[in-house]
Amino acid sequence: MAQKAWRSSILCLTAALTSLPVAAAPGNAADEWGYLGSIYLWGAGIEGTTANGSSIDIGFDDLISNLDFALMGSLEARKGDWSILGDVVYMDVSAGNSSTIVVTPGPGPGVPVQTVGRVEVKGLVLNLLGGYTVARTGASVVDVIGGVRYLEMDTSLRGQITVGPATQPVSVNADQSAWDLVVGLRGRSNLNDKWFATYHADIGTGESEVTWQLAGGVGYRFDWGEVSLSYRHLEWEADGNEAIHDINFSGPLLSAGFRF
Q1: Number of folded domains that form the chain
Q2: Which of 36, 79, 187, 234 has a CA-to-CA distance to 157 between 20 and 30 Å?
Q3: Which of 211, 182, 218, 188 is nearest to 200 (CA)?
Q4: Has residue 121 been placed in a domain?
Q5: pTM (2 d.p.)
Q6: How far apart are CA 171 and CA 178, in angstroms?
């Protein structure tokens, strides 16, 4: 079902591209490479389901309170109608917990059972895309894009269970990764000489059943670069052999970009 939806989306995208006006030829200034390096904070929550049907629901406030390290940024290079975009999101989140329950196996006093554990989740998302401008007006530009996306999720549980004088260590690991090819559109429209609007849409498949992304927002230009506020949704659906069936990251994104 997901594969059919993916093929239908590709056909719709192709039809949309054939209806776009031809891009105007770039001027002399377009003969040089220009760069935009951005750092951003993505206030994304994580939702999904596991292979056994259990729900995954981690709010952004939980991520922040248990965050060990995060790296979020992008680098865009453009020359004329051609562009290259690299984007990375890395998060390392961990949380510890301990509890004690009393088990009464029969007559007499109960036996205390203590569990101590720590869960660590590391997530990495990479996007490497190439683009070509297919439509250009005085205020707007539209690029067709294509490239690869990589997802890696590493989950580990370390702990111990103590029953009376005996202690038993516990260790569980679950790793999942996927490479996918994606295609899509992105664009920018100038609202005036300072304000602008952006959008991005892509879809693809590969080692995942399907992956797709939607983003849109507004920004403001400065002499040194730009600041933007947008909303981004990124989703995967895996095949039936993976521990995580589907997962998505969704939330507002605040970015600061520097031109050089």
Answers
A1: 1
A2: 234
A3: 188
A4: no
A5: 0.76
A6: 24
Average pLDDT in the chain: 80
CATH code of the domain containing 58: 2.40.160
d(CA 54, CA 223): 49
In the structure, what pLDDT confidence band is assigned to residue 98 with cuts at 50, 70 and 90? low
| Side-chain-side CA neighbours of residue 197 (13 Å) | 6
Give me the numbers of helices (H) and strands (E) for the chain, helices first please: 2, 12
Helix (H) or strand (E) holding 5: helix 2-18
Cβ atoms of residues 249 and 58 within 8 Å: no
Residue 28 lies in a domain: yes
**247: closest CA among 57, 41, 63?**
57
Q: Please choose, from the candidates 253, 17, 32, 254, the residue with its C-alpha nearest in 3D space to the C-alpha of residue 131.
A: 17
Determine the pLDDT at residue 179: 96
Rounded Cα–Cα distance for residues 145 and 185 (Å): 6
Range of the structural domain that residue 233 is part of: 2-90+128-150+185-259
- Structural domain contains residue 166: no
